């Protein structure tokens, strides 16, 4: 099975601490890497995670609070110093475009690669990126400013060839792709073998949803059908539920409720408030609602 991994680079909230970096992740899927949010210090965390900068082909910014985007211009500059020539695609709320262009003109004049900006409408759920094996869909969230999450979903693959049947029937290698695409096989004596007898089902298409800063949305689970792995911000515990509502954040309990209602397989917690020296209470609160809840920390890698 092709790799599909989430690399945690930073899982703290707005106030920097020695323990946690600002929000940033890398989603590795097949032969592609995408950066999701780019808070201050992301470059250092990429180094610590031994991730090759040059493999990142796109950046998805959930919203324009500094702990989610202050690291972007520095990374763009570093790409230039490393001799990048491949275009870098940036998907973000439209308000970033003018600011980013000004920063590039001021600090990165003479880049030898293109930074291609794609404005994201944070109010709708729609496909914002697509290739032959993957789609990325926006997830509208409810924060103090325009904000969305991102759903990374594999496209269904082709079935697997049954090598025993291929060898038994002497089917030429040249016909394997045709059989994967749905063709059957007829032997010289006229015996027909249906496509289904020559293959086994394809690997199950996997999916990962990143839900950045948001107030609890009771209907959010409706946008997360068949999601395997969910990251949902859990800035506070229920002892600070009023504060969470005031600043449009979620508690660990609320994040777990979304995971439970969506029927996901695993929940990742993050975006911890600096007021919690120990996140054990965040984990305990979430697991009371959704047992498959897990804390994130820098340099963790989760398989989807």
What are the salient characteristics of this protein?
304 residues, alpha/beta, seven-stranded mixed beta sheet, 10 helices
Short description:
With 304 residues, the chain is of the alpha/beta class.
Describe the overall structure.
With 304 residues, the protein is α/β, with parallel strands linked by helices. The protein is built from 10 helices and 18 strands. It has helices at 42-48, 66-69, 72-81, 96-107, 163-169, 176-180, 195-198, 241-246, 252-262, 280-289, and strands spanning 4-10, 24-29, 32-38, 56-60, 88-93, 115-120, 127-130, 134-140, 148-154, 160-161, 185-186, 192-193, 199-200, 207-211, 229-233, 266-270, 293-295, 301-303. It has a 7-stranded mixed β-sheet with strand order 6-5-4-3-2-1-18. It has a 7-stranded mixed β-sheet with strand order 7-8-9-14-15-16-17, with helices on one face. A hairpin with a 7-residue loop joins strand 8 and strand 9 (148-154). Helix 9 packs parallel to helix 10 (280-289). The longest helix is centred in the middle third of the chain and has 12 residues, at 96-107. The mean pLDDT is 95.
């Amino acid at each position: 099975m092709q790799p599909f991994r989430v690399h945690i680079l930073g899982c703290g909230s707005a106030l920097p601490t020695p323990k946690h970096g600002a929000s940033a992740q890398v989603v590795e899927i097949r032969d592609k890497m995408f950066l999701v949010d780019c808070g201050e210090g992301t470059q250092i965390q990429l180094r610590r995670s031994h991730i090759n900068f040059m493999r990142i082909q796109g950046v998805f910014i959930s919203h324009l609070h500094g702990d989610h985007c202050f690291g972007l211009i520095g990374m763009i500059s570093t790409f230039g110093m490393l001799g990048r020539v491949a275009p870098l695609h940036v998907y973000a709320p439209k308000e970033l475009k003018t600011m980013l262009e000004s920063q590039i003109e001021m600090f990165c004049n003479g880049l030898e690669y293109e930074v291609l900006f794609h404005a994201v409408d944070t109010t709708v759920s729609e496909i914002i990126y697509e290739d032959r094996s993957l789609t990325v869909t926006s997830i509208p969230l409810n924060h103090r400013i325009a904000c969305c999450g991102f759903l990374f979903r594999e496209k269904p693959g082709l079935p697997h060839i049954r090598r025993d049947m291929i060898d038994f029937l002497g089917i030429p290698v040249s016909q394997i792709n045709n059989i994967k695409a749905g063709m059957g096989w007829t032997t010289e004596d006229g015996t027909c073998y249906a496509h289904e007898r020559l293959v086994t089902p394809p690997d199950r298409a996997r999916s990962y949803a990143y839900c950045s800063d948001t107030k609890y949305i009771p209907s959010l689970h409706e946008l997360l059908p068949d999601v395997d792995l969910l990251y949902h911000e859990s800035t506070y515990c229920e002892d600070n539920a009023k504060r969470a509502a005031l600043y449009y954040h979620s508690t660990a309990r609320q994040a777990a409720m979304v995971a439970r209602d969506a029927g996901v397989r695993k929940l990742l917690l993050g975006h911890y408030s600096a007021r919690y020296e120990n996140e054990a209470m965040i984990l305990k609160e979430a697991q009371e609602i959704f047992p498959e809840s897990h804390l994130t920390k820098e340099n963790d890698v989760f398989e989807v």
